[in-house]
Amino acid sequence: MNPTPTPTTAPRDLVGIGIGPLNLSLAALAHPLAELDAVFYEQRPTFDWHPGLLIDGATLQVPFLADLVTLVDPTSPWSFLNYLRTRDRLFPFYFAERFHIQRAEYDAYCRWVSDHLPALHFGHHVDSVHWNPRHGLFEVDHTHLDDHGHAPTTTRTRTRSIVLGIGTAPHIPEPLKPLIDAPGPPVLHAADYLEHRDRVLAADHITVIGAGQSGAEVFLDLLRNRPTGREKIHWLARTEAFAPMEYSKLGLEHFTPDYTRYFHALDEPVRDRLVAAQWQLHKGIDAHTIAAIHDELYRRSLHGGWPDTVLTPGVHVRTAGRLTTTKIELHLEHIQQNTRTRLTTDAVVLATGYRERPLDRFLAGLHPHLHRDSAGRPHIDDHFRLALDPTVTGHIYVQNAEIHTHGVGTPDLGLAAWRSAAILNTITGKNPYPLPDRTAFTTFGLENNRPQIPPTRHNRTKKPLADRI
Predict the structure, then answer these.
(1) Nearest one of 195, 194, 222 to 208, comparing CA atoms
(2) Which of 90, 113, 237, 261 has its CA 20 to 30 A from that of 153?
């Protein structure tokens, strides 16, 4: 049994667990706050953002202004524009006129930030989190991994606050889980696509499952790299259509702090219904990618004939298995027709999305203190804090683990800086990042809890709305 690790430093104000874009945003905004003693731990050796999906030409679905800091502090040295300046690339970017940057460029930008923030500690695996009532502090035990993945040292850090930013994990549907690690033809999640791309392209027939953005990008990349007339690609989707993402100006206001506050105040059953119904706000395909797919398919039909592709929505994979050592058999059901068939293929790419990583591994020592909703999920207040017993006087904040309480904007990069600033304002109690009271033209709900705007020379003479109708 390992001895209890001894704290090596004075108590911290903040420990961040996980270093993805959201906690990296928090670290970047915390960096100039001299009064805040913060440290961040990540088990991976370096910053790594969806490396399997950095497909050449694939772009973010949010504008470049949705970087780590700009929407709350445009003057920050950690902005995307300053990153370009340090690379002498501002003028090329200016003339490129790109509002949506490539994913690979966003990844490079985040790596640049992570390389310059001293509070970040990679290669540190967090083992447990406990509350020490005698000291009134959280205790975070973490192991420093060496270059070979061994665990030579374990350390304890005490802290007043914790921010969990452990991200999401690739989702594998149950019928396909037995095929993932089995030998034979490739069956992989899109998160690993680039690593296995050559092997997938070498297969005689390829099936892509999933009609979100990653599924569309994988299908397009495969299509562009298969011979005309001999593409041999199936693209299957459970959704009823290869649907575009909602990208109208007012539709995008669902990704504002205004909507987040409105959503949080709704009853739990209403929130659950909305999350399920609003999938097209964040799980559809952007119009540019849909157009590129159609253009490529059309180009391949210019000289007569149709490309050897099958695009079928509304299909559910019931079961799956391997035929001998070279083939995969998918048992399919068409939901609307209530018909079934079988598809034999040589490679499968699962673009089946991601799920929030469970917090229980980190919160096992806090289970008696944690408040949960009717579905067993943690209660999370409007300051992104877990609801804990009053006996626990410290606070645990979450990032990208609160879609059930804060809505579809939870994983959206456009809200990263605002949420990080809100967390830092709460932790410091000094409001270092003043945030706007209003962020949307839409008023969500009949009750408006925004602060009243004092009369000005522009509005003091206006009549009440009821009098003007």
Answers:
(1) 222
(2) 113
